[in-house]
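Q: Is it fine to ask for two folds in a single conversation?
A: Yes, each is treated on its own. Send the first.
Q: Here.
A: Result:
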Amino acid sequence: MRNVTTCLLTLVISTLLSISVFAQKTLTGQVTDQEDGKSLPGATIRAGEIRGTTTDANGRFTLRNISDNIGTLEISYIGYQTIKLDAAKLSEGKPLEIKLQKSTFQADEVIVNATRVTDKTGMAYTNVTAEALNKQNLGQDLPVLLNFTPSLVSTSDAGGGVGYTGIRIRGTDATRINVTVNGIPYNDAESQGVYWVNMPDFASSVSSIQIQRGVGTSTNGSGAFGATVNISTNQFRKEAYAELNNSYGSFNTFKNTFKIGSGLIKDKFTFDARLSRVSSDGYVDRASSELHSYYLSGAYFGGKSFVRVNVFSGKERTYQSWNGVPEAKLRGDREGILSYIDRNGLDEKDAQNLVNSNDRTYNSYTYKNEVDNYRQDHYQVVTSHTLTNNLTLNVNGFLVRGLGYYEQYRKNDKFSNYNLPDVISGSDTISRTDLIRRRWLDNYFYGSTFSMDYNSFKKLTASVGGGYTYYTGDHYGEIVWARNAGATENEQRYYFNKGIKKDFNIYGKLYYQFTEKLNAFGDLQFRRVSHKIDGKDNEMVQMNFDQSYSFLNPKAGLTYQLAPQSSIYASYSVGNKEPNRDDFAASTTRLFPQSERLNNVEAGFRMQQGKWMISANYYLMHYKNQLVLTGQINDVGNSIRVNVPKSYRTGIELEGAVAFNSHLKWNANATFSQNKIANFTEYIVNYDTGGYDMVNHGKSDISFSPNIIVGSQFTYSPKKNLEFALLTKYVGKQYLDNTSSETRRLDAYFTNDLRLTYTVKPKWIKEISFNFLLNNIFSERYESNGYTYGYISGGALTQENFYFPQAGRNFLVGVNFHF
């Protein structure tokens, strides 16, 4: 089947390259402020799904070769009401005079504007609309919904897209991807990771997402070292509404969502609410998820001021499937399975579980409450104030409260591992017992962000912004049951440590239009961060870290307009990033982590012509002291990330879209890259000698960094209310570590999904929509994540590879009622 789909894709590409496009008409015009008549430079003109431009310094625009079948011409500008015109009724003989009205109802857009980029920033980015998300939103997490955006790879521990999911962009993992919600940091302050499972069905409250690849523009929160995901949930809806969305699918997956909104009350107030439940048994054995969330929002719109209060929460209970599937089990290698059992000392119950389970759905955990149980509550106050016609002040405050644990059953564990004395029973000394432990995280994260935005409505726009955040997190473990308890108390605490992290940043940004065609962008950020950890970790090792860092992150870009609908750009950016909690906790005196630095060059062009558009972006991400796994371990056997002096990622990202006609459209993207460590040395633990064997691999590939990523979306709409889509994703091979070893890799995979959307509008309801999604229609057997470790014992090298298989053919079907 892979050969069939490859041929189909080749045929389509050939069709695109050979297609003849016939010009229809050219539209010109000027966009101005309705009140004072001043021009609005940088206003967005959108024609259909794939065409668009921005106004020049005088507010003028030109769109060439526009077909009548594009539907609507949409004109928008930050802080102004958007208007839509029927393209079929527009003639090319007379320039359009478009007047926009300023309104605080659009202040939601202003809040995130300071941390987003435009075509004039000189950086690579992708905008994702709520409409695009809703077509896919049948219960799977946000990483899966974003799967077809450029350079992005998604993964799911449970194999079905519900529960623990993650993304990598340009090969960089979640700890290097900055995520904000309404301009407010979302990454966990200590680990710097993003746990999407804590925000189930969040896509149902999203109004837009911007993904910036590379360093991106200055933002709040952890340093962006591969991408920035900027999420906005704020959306003004003038009319009252209600929605009931229900879906069901494979692996007993359910999603139930209820949304309601008041519309505009007395021209000043709106209220919105959402309640969601998502559950799934998971593709992997016992990898179930039970997820609940809500979202509440209230807004006040004054003449010059806007205030919105958001309260949202996610609660998750997921059965752990963190260990993956051993390679021998995945391959159905019975002899290898028996060898795995022998060298890892599995008891009879665990051995039978390994032998008798399905090769691809094996889960090593069998204890019924081997679960992750966590709740996270968010409180946000976002405000915008128009100080003058040119100056806007945005001030936001937030609080995040997190509390939860994961529970584990431990067989025959040592009392000494929990700082407990052996149990004396008569003449016997018992030093081990079965027990159940819980590892807790109890944290608070709060702070404020702000921006002061200036718009001259001529050549200059600028902003000054930043924020301060404070995090405090208690990490502790409790024993809740023991077979031989001795003096052990119920919920006896056996370790405790506290982490405190403070983060301050301030930045200044500006855009300046030198000439009608040349625009410059500048951005300078100062960031000061401190991280303190005190106490004992879960290995009973004393931790005492107090580290502070000061970073200066400059960015600059140029954009040159070659023609009204084509431009070239280039930018240079610097990003710095502090080590995360695990880097400190696992470090040794000899191998203490240093901060990382990234120098990022982006350059490319964008062009639109007739019914098609295309863009190409070249990037070079050069790292100094990037932290990577080398095989080295600390005194208790945990892996250590070590700074490597030089490494880089370089590649080209291609995007294209074509409207063959009013019914058939195609969007595609492809990334071709090299991701290298300049000189990598592998350390292999040698239990025979008590040291390491070292292997120098020279220039090697960075782990989990495919050289090819391709995404494609074909949509066919035979009728206005009916759409079919073929969604294709190709991800090249990835290495599990940094050795470029072909025996430690994820194979390339090629998946195809089929989506059907159908809407009806009966008299008794606003709209009913039906969505059907058939994932992996050819049942491609693939793994999207894994890990590896090796050691030498008895003179022989043992390499243990583990994989996270993804589901074969599966489906989701949904019915949505819009009132």
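Q: Second one now.
A: Result:
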Amino acid sequence: GFLGLKEINKQNQRSTWEICFCSFGILYFSLNSFIFPTAGYVVKGCQITQNTRAICKNSLKVFPKEIPETVTFIDLSGNNISKLNKKALENLPNLLHLNLGHNFISKIESGTFVVQISLKVMFLDNNMLCKLQDGMFDGLVNLIELHLTSNQIQTVAPASFMSLSKLGFLDLGHNKLRDLKNILHHTPHLQSLYIPANNISIFHSWELSNKSTELVTLDLSQNELMFFRLTAGIFPKLKKLHLEDSIKNGIVWEVSNTSYLRSVHKLDISGVRSSLHGLQEVLETCNSSLQYLKLNHINNNLQVLINISCKIPTLDMLHLCTNLKELDLGMNEITAISNNSFKSLRKLKTLIIKSNFLTSVPYAVRKTQILKLDLSYNNINALGCDDFADMKQLRHLSLYNNPLMALKDCVFKDLVHLNVLMLQNSGIDKLNGAFKKNTPNLENLILSNNHLTVLDHGEFKALNSLKNLALEVNKLKQLNDGTFFGLSSLRQLTLRSNEITEITNGAFSHLEALKTLNLESNHIKYASLEPIPYPPFAELSQLDTLFISDQHRPRRDKFPQNFLQGLTNLSIIYIQRNQLKTLHPHTFNYTPNLNRLHLSENAFADIPNNLFSPIQKLKRLHISQTNLRSLDFLLHANLTELELLQVGKNTFSVITEPVMLSLSALEYLDLQGNSFSCNCDNAWFLQWVINNKQTQVFDANNFECNFPPNLKGRKLLEIDVRSCTVDMGFICYISTTCAVIMTIAVCFTHKFLQWHLVYAYYLMLAFLYNSKNKDKGAHQYDAFVSYNTNDEGWVLGELLPKLEDEQGWRLCLHHRDFQPGKPIMENITDAIYGSRKTICVVSRDYLESEWCSREIQVASFRLFDEQKDVLILVFLEDIPMQQLSPYYRMRRLLKRQTYLSWSRADAHPDLFWEKLRQALETREHPMGEHIRLTVEDGPPGERPDH
């Protein structure tokens, strides 16, 4: 039947092979994509923020290799790194700040920093370096600040600092240096040099440099100086000279020209233990430019020292001290100061007398024009109304750590320009109206760590300029209406660690400018989630940050659903360690601008699904140690702007794909301390941790399995879950491969097997029709005649008269007996299965006809299916073997049935019709038992004889 279909043209064949070739290309590309996946985003022991900052504190022994090259800030302090080699930092060209302090680094290979040409600040303090070698800092051409404090450095090689041409700050304190050679030779722009607590006994200016330096600060404190020789003016810009605990008895002080230190403004000679003559030499080298003099730890020698430096027997100042602006007399044993001690210090602005034994405010301070007075850590037990009389210029007053007990309403009456007042740790239990009328310009008032129990109405009403009020660690129990009346400019209020249980209506009503409120560690409690009539923060619409963690309360207590009502601009809130088991779903309805939320260390087992829905601007969520069993609540939160999620030390073990995909902006995820299921439930999450490029999962390398038991204690990232992971890349690869193979198969089939497929198609159709019609009963016709319309003349003129008129057979002809309106294939099938036999009148036109091909296919299938002789072939003409070969193979498969040739019946036409009658008359014998009717061994065209 497939002999009648047309042959595919050459152009279509060429297109087919082009498709096959392209398919091979697609297969190759897919294979390469599958074999070479991209790297993941897991950095062992490091927290990376926005791809620019890396903080790694996890007992690391080597420099981590996985840090992205985009990082500009790295903090590796406090690890166990012992060595830096050339490859440690080769992938970090953008580094600006590197902290390697508090490690065990004893060796740095030459060339380690050759890539870090942008580095500006480096910390190598508290390591085990013994020597600074040549080439150690090569590449650091833009380094500005270098910290080498607390190593074991004994020597500095001549070319150690050769690359550090822009170095401005160098700290070599607490090492074992004996001299200062090779430090300033290659650092022409060094401004600050700190060398305290070394083993330097001799200071020679020629060791540092043979030309002028740009040093502004030189710290030689805590050395055992025996010789100080300055023979050249190499310090023209030096302003700060620290010699604390370095001037001992017997020191040789040689400054050949006092102008060499003409720029020194600040001199620290605390702890001096030199002879009077030696001290005089030191002080006289610093001329009238001296503005700051620090004289701590002089103790009983203070009086003598002042006499020497100022050339008078009392505490009046010499002409050398007339320009002094800051005088530090702290940490001595002063018990009293004479009334005229500071009379000559007309330019004095800062006076520090802290940590002495004063029992009252010295009268001498009233004679000064100082702006800052520090009397902290003395024994002053009371303040009088005239202690600060006429000190209207005073801006900063420190009285903390004195046993003041109580204040008077007149004590600060003259301090009209005071900005800062520090009264912490003073045992104050009552304010007694000290701030109801005075200090109108006060901006910072520190009353922490006292014994205040009650604040009267309007206690601070004169403080209209106050911006910061610290009342932490007192004994306040209740905040009443009017407590903070007058504080219209207050921006920060600290009430931490009091005993507050209740905030009455209107307590914060006058704090319209308040930005930060700290109520941590109090006893605020509510018994129900139901709304309360007077929300405590209803009038704090400008509040930005609220601390309300660590409330000491029974477990049954809750926060009312409208607890945060009024906080429309709140950005940050801390509600940690409150033993909360639940929050009302409407808790955050009143804080639409919340940006950071801390809920860690509570007792939540579950979070209401819609709890976070009102805070769509949330960027940081901390909810660790809360017994969470699942993160599914995040699916309903719609936190599309969340950047940081901290959910460590909870009880969930599975993290699902929808949860993570719902956090589209997440950059940092902290899951430390959770126990994970190492099975297919976490397969997607494991692959996501390794492959995602946006979110860093902190310390993922140390996540441990808790289930199943045989994997307990294993590292999560070491588990192979490829067998249960749906890998879209692999699926695409398989799909593409199958598509390519199918394309190749179609190309091959279309080229070589198209006729066999067509044959199989029609064979299947015949089977379907056979199944439908074979059980319909007796045959309606003796034979169905299948012919081409071009052969209709022979059928009607020869075949029909002979078989119907003369022999009496009933034939089925398509032009006469097919049912009009019925599908043609149904007509064909019904005709074939409704007839005992099928006569196929075969000619060249017949073989080229599509419908004739279908008719012979159905008849052939009936023959094959029923295993009966139901097919008669009548050849009207001789046909070449190449046109009959597929048909001939089919006939050989069916053991060659009846064949009749009209073209060879010219000599014996009667025999032809007799044979045809016999074929029609032959009953349906099983194949193999039929009567031999043909006179030939094969179809016409195969043998020449009849």
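Q: Anything structural to flag on that second result?
A: Two points. The longest strand covers residues 247-255. DSSP finds 15 helices and 44 strands in the chain.
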